[in-house]
Design goal:
five-stranded mixed β-sheet, two-stranded antiparallel sheet, mainly alpha
């Protein structure tokens, strides 16, 4: 078989240049794809903020743009958590707000007059493109350019990330996922190059992540775990030290500058692992330094002394650590962190955390919905990371393992799993296509150049494979990058220059590349393309249908067409136009942010959930009979009560379905509220078999007041699919003032207390004494609603 001509260096450089241009063009298309697939919500509905938390972020961004950064840091918001209020600058992660505010300022400086709301709506799609590019950079450092491009395509469309980054989803995760991936990229880049410049950039990227999201603790624990893994497996080097030590020192100091974090960056248990590994890596570095200066005998003596002193120091440090941690009832851990380490902790001790739907464990269909075929590619990607193993590939494996565990505990953390799944799937698919395309090229070359090879003669195979190795080397394939990045063992530790020269001069020592039959290669390629097509179809459907609908504007399809339910904005508009500016509105905490942002009215509790006692007070009022509930709301200066009811239209996320969480949270602070009193034989019922406590609760009455008028007296609840138990009743202390078109939001006003009439009729002393005695008895027997 004829041996092809060796590649021309000029042709090779031209090929590399054209490949670089093509790579940048593909990355541009990936960015366009990531942005465009997330604007279905704007195309199908309108440019509007989604969900609940984004409305608070939008309101804070408006304040920042209008009043400036200094007023933002010192802003005391008296329209939330009445009568306590809230210091916004010290209790909010400012990364998202500062990013959107800076983007608005930059666009307006270019005479592009966009509103603050428009900038907030499109912030998440813009940063999704940045996240895809960061994924490319990270995966390229692990396994090369091909894997990086594939992983970037996956991340641009993965439904799990789309759910938190559609246009209008103005939440912390919109920018935090980009910061997470970019921090990991800079860590791996520093690990591969040993550059102090990238180490400094890594600390700054970590600072941006701390400003953006409380999930920064995932970074500050995953990177120490990887550094410790490298030390234990004998892969310590100066590059590992440069990648880790500056991050801990600079990153911790910068994190302490964020007001919401402060000294928690050094005093909470979530950060102690990083400090422990910081001490260990310095001990290891000192040992390597001493080993290079002393003889073997003196080194053993020095190690003995060092270990003895180190043990004493470690015991003292552990004792101090135990003393500090033991002073906290949660041992220095936050409630959400303990919920991740012990999935049953929240349901036992902190029902306010367990009541949030996104804090529940996911189901198996959730994985198929959110990452689809990536779930099947991840195991292959893990195997590919071990061929060969390197510091970067071991980090990718550790990332996927930890993210799989956390996503199994809390469905919200499927968002953290998505980048890891895309990276591993990109590596797997890239390696697979590498084998398939090589096999097709090799078989076609044999088919046309040597149509009748001698059976059993492997010389042609060897020459073709050898030629393929030459071609891969001169075309700048990723084989050399992997060799340079992978760490050699102690036995074969040499300079990287010698490794490269050995590869160039002795190609015979290259391992033989896998070549599959032509039929199998073509069939597998077609199968992968078909699976990829199904993945694209699923992602587009998820972006257009499953995750594009804003929760504040609901839609449903029926036999007579599309129905739009705009009851939330209708109710907030009524509050804004028909109530006084200083009126207080009570509702369950889910609707606090929207009420403040859209109705501009003071609320008792909101989605920040920082004060469990205040939320329990509202839950107790909703769980109590009408008169005690009225007294509680009067003590809080409440004038209006808002409840969400879905029994008429079938909206399942209403307050009746959330009512048991109100009972549990209220009963956690006020013991007279007991959950069994609201259950019949352990079942939650609202029909004729419901308990008297349930039927007389304020939430039941405010939800079902006049409900029988909607269907001719039956009172059939379409969510619970049963007739209500108590149909015809009247309210004595609350007055209905507004109900939306589809009965989804109902607003009631507290009736004023009755005037006292004194001494108009003369009564005998006996009757007065008798009346005063009865009043005293009733006051004594009246239960205190606060206990």
């Amino acid at each position: 078989m004829a041996i092809p001509e060796s590649p021309n260096p000029m042709k090779s450089s031209l090929r590399n240049a054209s490949g670089g241009v093509l790579c940048y063009f593909i990355l541009l298309l990936i960015g366009v794809l990531a942005f465009s697939i997330r604007i279905f919500s704007v195309i199908k509905y309108e440019s509007v903020i989604h969900e609940f938390d984004p409305y608070f972020n939008y309101r804070v961004t408006q304040f920042l743009v209008k009043n400036g950064i200094y007023d933002f840091w010192n802003w005391f918001d008296d329209r939330t958590w009445y009568p306590l209020g809230r210091v916004i600058g010290g209790t909010v992660y400012p990364g998202l707000t500062l990013t959107a505010g800076s983007l608005w300022w930059f666009l307006n400086s270019l005479n592009i007059p966009l509103s603050v709301e428009t900038v907030c709506v499109f912030t998440a799609p813009i940063f999704s493109a940045n996240a895809a590019w960061a994924t490319y950079l990270l995966t390229k450092e692990v396994k090369g350019t091909g894997a990086g491009l594939t992983a970037a395509v996956f991340l641009s469309m993965v439904p799990s990330y789309i759910s938190r980054s559609v246009a209008g989803s103005y939440d912390n995760e919109a920018v935090a996922i980009f910061a997470l991936i970019f921090t990991f990229y800079l860590y791996i880049k520093t690990l591969n190059t040993g550059s102090l410049f990238y180490a400094t950039l890594n600390a700054l990227s970590y600072f941006y992540m701390v400003c953006s999201w409380g999930g920064y603790t995932f970074i500050i624990n995953l990177i120490p775990m990887h550094a410790l893994l490298c030390i234990v497996t004998g892969r310590y080097s100066s590059r590992l030290y440069i990648a880790y030590a500056p991050l801990i020192v600079l990153g911790t100091l910068l994190a302490a500058l964020v007001p919401v974090v402060g000294f928690n960056a050094m005093m909470t248990s979530e950060h102690f692992a990083s400090f422990l590994v910081f001490i260990i890596i310095h001990v290891v570095a000192f040992v390597y330094y001493v080993k290079g200066m002393l003889s073997l005998r003196m080194f053993k003596v020095a190690v003995t002394v060092l270990v003895t002193i180190g043990m004493v120091v470690c015991v003292a440090a552990v004792a101090v650590l135990i003393a500090v941690v033991a002073a906290s009832p949660t041992k220095g851990w936050s409630g959400r962190s303990l919920s991740l380490l012990d999935p049953t902790y929240a349901s036992k001790y902190i029902p306010i955390i367990a009541s949030v739907s996104e804090h529940q464990p996911p189901t198996w269909p959730s994985y198929f919905m959110d990452i689809n075929v990536l779930a099947f590619l991840v195991p292959a990607g893990i195997v590919a990371c071990f061929l060969p193993i390197s510091d970067a590939s071991s980090f990718a494996v550790l990332y996927i393992v930890t993210s799989v565990y956390f996503s199994g505990v809390m469905v919200r953390l499927m968002l953290v799993l998505a980048p890891a799944a895309c990276i591993l799937s990109g590596i797997a698919l890239s390696e697979c296509f590498d084998v398939l395309t090589r096999s097709i090229k090799f078989n076609l070359y044999n088919l046309f150049e040597n149509p009748s090879p001698i059976v059993g003669d492997s010389s042609s195979d060897d020459s073709a494979v050898s030629e393929k190795v030459k071609y891969d080397r001169h075309s700048g394939s990723d084989t050399h990058e992997e060799v340079l990045k992978s760490r050699t063992s102690k036995k074969y530790k040499k300079k990287e220059k010698d490794v490269v020269e050995k590869i160039v001069r002795k190609p015979k020592n290259e391992k033989r590349l896998l070549v599959l039959p032509l039929e199998a290669s073509i069939f597998t390629t077609v199968l992968i393309i078909i699976l990829g097509s199904f993945y694209v179809i699923h992602c587009v459907w998820a972006a257009a249908e499953a995750y594009s609908a804003p929760s504040i504007v609901l839609t449903s399809h029926s036999h007579d067409g599309l129905h739009v339910f705009d009851d939330f904005r209708e109710a907030y508009s009524w509050l804004s136009h028909n109530t006084e500016v200083n009126d207080k509105v009570a509702s369950w905490w889910d609707y606090g942010y929207q009420t403040t942002a859209m109705a501009n009215r003071t609320v008792i509790v909101d989605n920040n959930t920082w004060n469990n006692t205040h939320i329990a007070t509202v839950g107790t009022a909703m769980s109590s009979p009408e008169k005690p509930a009225w007294e509680i709301f009067q003590s809080l200066d409440v004038k209006y009560v808002l409840v969400v009811f879905g029994g008429l239209v079938g909206y399942s996320s209403d307050d009746i379905n959330k009512f048991l969480w109100m009972v549990r949270i209220g009963g956690g602070v006020f013991p007279h509220i007991k959950e069994p009193d609201y259950l019949r034989d352990g079942q939650y019922r609202i029909d004729s078999h419901a308990t008297p406590t349930m039927l007389n609760s304020l939430m039941y009455k405010l939800s079902y007041y006049r409900f029988v008028e909607t269907d001719g007296g039956k009172g059939f609840d379409k969510v619970r699919r049963t007739e209500i138990g108590k149909k015809n009743f009247k309210l004595t202390h609350f007055k209905e003032v507004f109900t939306t078109h589809h009965w989804m939001v109902r607003i009631y006003m507290l009736k004023p207390p009755k005037n006292r009439i004194r001494g108009k009729l003369k009564k005998s002393k006996f009757s007065l004494k008798k009346r005063s005695t009865s009043i005293k008895d009733s006051q004594i027997s009246r239960p205190n609603p606060w206990h």
